[in-house]
Amino acid sequence: MKAKFKSLSLAGIAIFIAVALINFPGEVLKASERGLDMWWGTVFPSLLPFFITAELLIGFGVVRFIGVLFEPIMKPLFNVPGVGGFVWAMGMASGYPSGAKLTTRLRQEKQLTKIEAERLVSFTNASNPLFIIGAISVGFFHDERLGILLAVCHYLGNALVGICMRFYGMNVREVPERKSSRMSFYKALQELHRTRLKDKRPFGKILGDAVINSVQTLLMIGGFIIMFSVFTKLIYLIGIASIFASVLGIGLQFLGIPTELALPMFSGLFEITLGSSLISQAGITSMLPQAVVISFILAFNGFSVQAQVASIIAETDIRFAPYFFARILHGIFASILTIIFFKPLYLDHQVINLNYAPVFSRGESGFWTNISQGLHLVGPVITLFTLALAAFILTIRITNKKNYL
């Protein structure tokens, strides 16, 4: 009975989306263009170098080297192997869903157990600094100081989630428990050499596989971004968003947050960028409630990113439920930290830099603005070049395979 209900529900959702697409073709096209522009102009070029580099580091044994070196730190703190330090750092630098991608890869390499992978994926999917400071703070709010507050609360909240999740699955014994050893550079070098020797692929094959795997993952991410951009627009047009936002507004009012932020927050629960843009346009005079809501949706990741993570970890036995629970926990932590640090990191900083505030208030923050604008200009070129390169590599491999046969 449960399976039949699930089948009917999925079929109903698909029919509903199909009918909505037919009724609103113009709006759907604009939403698709918005999602595509975001993917090929920002997401693809910003994630591609990290994905390729991570694949090469795994193939050459560097990740195993880092794992042995950081075992004494990661094991007591987060109850994950030392390789988790690499995933955590790459996840913060490149942004979601890098943490899920790398965790899945290490799980496939048998460097993580199932429980360890579920712990690791719960706190290694974070937003990157460029998005928090460049896109949201400078791009939407024209205030770089807000970016510092959001970034500190986001990453500190993520660390707190990792500490909490270290107790997850403590009663499950998958393998003999790993004991934290002393940091040994020599032992780490031995593991690096041993791991490299196990991989018999030549350098060209490793590099080609890194490009192909990265492009395949980014194509999947692009599909989710476009799909959720369209879906978010549809629920607005049909009026479903307003209904759910009114219910959400009751909870926000109870927490002392203006109900005007209910609809933007509901949108942000689906797609972070659109939600953040709407929050900046809500007309709220106080910055604190806006910062709290943005901190929550950044930590929650949005259903768009969560769908990407679910698709990536589906290649393994890693379960989605711990990750989803961690997103709610991260949202709570980040929101509370925003309230705690709002005065010292935002208000007091604003007073100290009062004489220099006009530069920031106009959004003329040179460093982050230049990076964002530069990436948006060269991003499409990088995307098209990489897609052409991946197609070329695949063509060569298929041709060589046919010649061999």
UniProtKB/TrEMBL annotation:
Keyword Protein biosynthesis applies: no
One Pfam family matching this protein: Gate
Protein transport among keywords: no
Alphabetic keyword roster: Membrane, Transmembrane, Transmembrane helix
TM stretches of this protein: 46-70, 120-141, 147-169, 206-228, 234-254, 324-346, 377-396
Domain of life the protein comes from: Bacteria
Domain Nucleoside transporter/FeoB GTPase Gate: start-end pairs: 42-139
Record's protein name: Sporulation integral membrane protein YlbJ
